[in-house]
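Late entry, written up from scratch paper. The run itself happened at the end of the previous shift, but nothing got recorded in the book at the time, so transcribing now.
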Amino acid sequence: MRVLIADIVAGVLQPGDRLPPEADLARRFGVSRGVARECVRGLEERGLVAVKHGRGATVLADTRWDMFDLDVIAASLQGSRSTRVLEEYLECRRVLEISAAGLAAQRASQRDLVALSSTLERMAAAASEAPGTPSAEARYHDADIAFHRAVIDATGNRALGGMTEPVHRALAAARVPLARPEQRVERSLPEHRRILSAIAAGDAGEARAAMRDHLRTVERYLQEYARESRTAVREHEESG
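Output as recorded:
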């Protein structure tokens, strides 16, 4: 299934193309027809194909894809449009989390503030270790995601939590392009402290501004990553 997802996302299989019959897929991958059928059903569940009796499976346009499915995310981040995909996730995050920060400032309980402080302490502890250490990277990233989830929790809006969870999950799968370990002490941690301080003070306007500025920083990281990627591709082509 992941091979076929990669082919669809990469454009090897275009919208309107039909997948081979299940018997052909079974022979190609050396599996039973039942396994091939389950594979096609998995593609259908992810919005990648439409299945009609007697006509087989037809590839759908990317507007129908489940962009929060981890297999679709992984394939999308491997392709040439990876930067655009990340921009879309960050745009979702900006729409949701800036307003959420304001609500958190108005509604956060003492328990919410303790949770935010705890995750920030975990971020600081991980950032104090040698930059690039795999275990420290994992702990920092997990604490970072936990901080933003704690902001959402502080709104008391369960529906909002359900909307932001898949966005955070998608960005967790793409953490490498957005990681800047060398800038955490000087930039990332102070930005998170500013968010926490505004929420603790009950200042909704400052909380929104602090979250907006932080997400702009993340977007600049993505822009830097895109420039670096284009430069690497250009240098590879020139050397070849």
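Residues 105 and 199 are 4 Å apart (CA to CA).
(Scratch paper discarded after transcription.)
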